[in-house]
Predict the 3D structure of the following.
Amino acid sequence: MDRPRETGDNRLTRWFGTTTARRLFIVTATLVTLRLLLLYAGDEALSGDFPVFHTAAQAFAAGETMRLFDDAFLDARPEDSSTQRWLYPPHALLLFSPLSLMDMETAFIVSGVMGWAFFALAGAWLLRVVAPGAPAALYLALIAAPACFWPQSMGHPSLLWFAGLLTAMALREGGRRVAAGVVIGILTYKLTLGVLVAVALVAARDWRGVIAAACTALALSTLATFWVGLDYWPALAGKVLEHLSPPDTAQQAYDLFYRQTGPAGLIAALGGPLPLASIAQVVMLLICMIAVAVTWTNRETPPALRIGLLAALIPVAMPAVWFYDAVGLSIGAVLLVASGIIPATGLGIAILVLLYLNVLLPFLLGQPAGLATIPAALGAIWLTATARMRFATPIPSGTVAAGRPGALNDPKIEE
């Protein structure tokens, strides 16, 4: 008798359940952890993004919040060697205010360890909800992704933001949609990353989540504005516009844009005209919005597939998103595999590898981040579309692909 038709999910998940996969990701997780421990033991990362967050927390605690928009104030601080500027809404100050209780070196270590721990716990929770029985190697792949190193090494809170997103999705898939909306409302301190999340909630007609997120964001913003004053908003708007102004030279343009993950950054880094870069970014945003809307509208789509696509598209949808937010692509790779319906074709595996490694490849070659992140995101859309079409095709009962969608260790799956 002919062997029943076998879908790619069985081959992929069987591989992640092998000893080879477990050993590979144990080694990877160990190397990433050791590298971060060495980093925390030195001063290397204190020239990254962290100083501006620590400075903001101290200024907020001292009642000098408006000085954050004074470049001379930031540049005059001896411990702040970063060229970063403060470009966050006022409720971000509420979230980062505990950093003021520690010196910068201690705060860097504590925030880094807590951010990674939160990410690991949130990832484990989500995988247990959307892919019960998932192989341990999938979890290790999530927390050991090379992209996790970039935000941690620079002291940027991107890993904390994505940990919040994973928490919100775990709450939502567990039926606690209001609580998920509250978490999403807190995440509005990074507005550029949240646009597609709003599209997903609306497409899913999750009105309780939408209302909870909007009310939470409004309440936090109002509270923070009452604390720092109304002058904060025009000062922030002026600083954002200044930050978006075009560089003076081609070298400055490359230095500014080559680490951005969207098409606007890629075109600008390669010397293309800024109007073309802006048009390309708008087109990418529309493509991402349509892909997310279509995927989240269909309630039969496996949750891991919906969430994986959302995470993978967040880094490329909006302009001025940097390489430390590329961890969303790695999350997308893991969740697409966890969905259980991704075909294990050569092209499919290549896209998953590109999603997982993302900015590591271009940076090793000294190339702009967008050369990897944009094809990877578009590949995620293609994988999702083809997987949904395969899943929509009726499969005879009793075949290898039969059983609950997304199930990784389903007893109906035969060897």
